[in-house]
């Protein structure tokens, strides 16, 4: 673990385990997707409640804004997983398999069909994970390292994975600033200027204490993997029943 001087918050305030961060990420993601799938279909949820800094807020927009913090936390957790896993091949394989599994719910969420031009966020995380692996594998060969990074960037553009190339670059920023949490928060926030609400994720990230937390067995670990496709599918079914 880094020294307390490297963190925004003193050590006594760093009380969030990796498991707690996972809970924050999936809850905020659920709120976001509830807004996208259900509240977008419910006109009263789009009624303006108040205006803040020139931006009009409805229940729908509040849900979507809360959800912005999920992606940076997932990126941070991916990096932690990469650093601490005992089997990088299996870790990457799990990301790829759940990217494939999540495609049908993802497509249904946006089009109510099995086809959609963009790919789910697991693909973004998987490409970032491959970049992490390439950077370390070719750490003594800067040319091959650069070619791999650029190649994966091109794939992220062509694949149209969620958060697009910006999400891929953000993962690289998280990797290269992994030893400097304060710098990570500053550079990451600057990169996320187009989704500034996501910057609040760094508050919880900098409360991380380096502990794994309650998720210590394979069953619980895979619950978090399965949560992504399953919760989307459930929301799609609810939308079908209520609005379509």
Task: Describe the fold and architecture.
Keywords: Membrane, Transmembrane, Transmembrane helix. This protein has one domain (4-243). The chain is built from 11 helices and 2 strands; from the N terminus they run H-E-E-H-H-H-H-H-H-H-H-H-H. With 244 residues, the protein is mainly alpha-helical. Helix 1 (18-37) packs parallel to helix 11, helix 5 (103-111) runs parallel beside helix 11 (218-243) and helix 7 (142-159) runs antiparallel to helix 8. Helices cover 64% and strands 4% of the residues. Residues 1-5 have low confidence and may be disordered.
In short:
The protein is mainly alpha-helical. The chain has helices spanning 18-37, 59-67, 70-84, 88-101, 103-111, 121-137, 142-159, 164-176, 181-191, 201-205, 218-243, and strands at 48-52, 55-58.
Feature tags:
244 residues; mainly alpha; 2 strands; 4% strand; TraX; TraX family protein
Please give the alpha-carbon distance between the first and last residues. Answer: 51 Å
Biggest β-sheet, characterized?
2 strands, antiparallel
What is the global morphology?
globular
Number of helices: 11
Radius of gyration computed on alpha carbons:
18 Å
Give average pLDDT, whole number. 93
Strand order of the largest sheet: 1-2
